[in-house]
From TrEMBL:
Protein's name in the database: MarR family transcriptional regulator
Alphabetized GO MF terms: DNA binding; DNA-binding transcription factor activity
One BP term from GO: response to stress
Domain of life: Bacteria
Keywords from the named record: DNA-binding, Transcription, Transcription regulation
Pfam name, any one: MarR
SMART domains registered for this protein in UniProt: HTH_MARR
Species for this entry: Cupriavidus cauae
Keyword DNA-binding: yes
Keyword Transcription: yes
PANTHER family per record: HTH-TYPE TRANSCRIPTIONAL REPRESSOR YETL, TRANSCRIPTIONAL REGULATOR, MARR FAMILY
Amino acid sequence: MMNAPGTDDTFPFDPASYRICDSVGYLMARAKGDLSRDVEQEVGALDITHAQASCLVMLAHGRARTVTDLGRELNTDMGSVTRLISRMEKRGLVERQRSDADRRIVDLRVTPAGHALVDQLPAIFCRVLNRRFRGFTEAEIAQFRDMLQRVIANNTG
């Protein structure tokens, strides 16, 4: 284990023993890709993409309300999110609405057709997660979730 210069913190990763296939970052990216691919296949039956499903759920559950919010949550550029929302708007899944409080802000709202899809998504997401986490205990999943939240919280630059 190496110490950062000028600190007492111990860092568990050492460039001298780094191997890409054993890298936590590589493994997280692989796992995310596998989960995303599985969800993509499952939501395809609803004629939507994984990104569209994620947007619908975030909007429906109040996690996001604008394109900016969605971009931040999905870690995606605003142009991509805007195009995604435009496609969803054409399909009647979401609608744009100017904010009454600040006319510069455009809020996004899930339509009844969008809510009909949102109602089906938890079963799909859980089916994929149950497949991928087969053999894990509830305690292991809770610990894994906690670890991921800590990794995210450590984003201090």
